[in-house]
Amino acid sequence: MAKITLDNLAHSYLAKPTSEDDFALKELNHDWVDGEAYALLGASGCGKSTLLNIISGLLHPSQGRILFNDRDVTHAPTAERNIAQVFQFPVVYDTMSVHDNLAFPLRNRGADPTYVAGRVNQIAKMIGMEAELNHKARGLTADAKQKISLGRGMVREDVNALLFDEPLTVIDPHMKWELRTQLKSLHHEFGHTMIYVTHDQTEALTFADKVVVMYDGRVVQIGTPQELFERPAHTFVGYFIGSPGMNLFDAEIDGAAARIAGVTVPLGAGYAPAKGKLQVGVRPEFIKLSGAADGVPARVKRVEDVGRHKIVRLDVEGREISAIVGEGSAISDGTQNITFDPDGINVYADDWRIAPEGEAA
């Protein structure tokens, strides 16, 4: 296990980058705590896999250093980093049995045969492949092969870190849930440092102790699922986390109030004067449809009944916003006023959250 330090790390695929826009991975300075489980979350092309490949040694950064337990491994080959990596698509030895595929990393390091047998059986049970141990990998389905790949990544107990690059892409939905649960159990049992790359917020939020949200090659927030939901540090985090994501309203901010669509809205806290593009962010859970005369005017466009609740899509000054209401709520067509729960309001300047006065750092 290892603490992983990213020191002034950045990467460009261009030979001579001339501006920040030329970098696929913009400057990072972070310590990832030994033994914690992290998820790298973001849309395709945001730099997740680039960062993972730098950590594993498959890619050399354009600038900066990477350290394992304060030891500089920037120029160390993958084999010297003592990590296990599982890729998006299965990598298995087709001519070997499932048992021998799982045993290979241990045998390659001269592990005792008795230990190998016990560990292989333990991992096979974890991934649900005990009955296939003596089968050749060649004839198995893609999701079965990916389970072997996952198992081979998890079979070693002495690794500095386990790296997963969207490993459940080819797994069916029910098995995804089971394997995520098993990975979390493995982490709790052995305390490996785990880094899990995904674009799926459900995978990230259910797997990780801390979620690392990336946008345009930059880490915009590292936090617990609760922190990402309640206090998104960037508007992208608010949009990407949650279903539906956070609503944004263009606003004028004046102390403890905002002016939205010509209506004064209480913010529940005071804010220092700020410049730039000012917006108020409110998640659908904190928006209420109301007959109050002082609410923000909104026109109901459609209602989506998803079983446990309804998602109401509304138009506010040409922008679609969403509100979540109870399953039994009656919703009339036409214009309704909406109000906000002050505890669910965040304020942004040029997409970055502004802390209200008095908020603890």
Automatic annotation (TrEMBL):
SMART domains given in the database record: AAA (SM00382)
Gene Ontology MF terms in the entry: ATP binding
Keyword vocabulary terms for this entry: ATP-binding, Cell membrane, Membrane, Nucleotide-binding, Transport
InterPro entries according to UniProt: AAA+_ATPase, ABC_transporter-like_ATP-bd, ABC_transpr_FbpC, ABC_transpr_MalK/UgpC-like, Mo/tungstate-bd_C_term_dom, NA-bd_OB-fold, OB_MalK-like, P-loop_NTPase
One Pfam family from the record: ABC_tran
Domain called ABC transporter: residue spans: 4-241
Family affiliation: Belongs to the ABC transporter superfamily.
Protein name, as recorded: Sn-glycerol-3-phosphate import ATP-binding protein UgpC
Recorded name of the encoding gene: ugpC_1
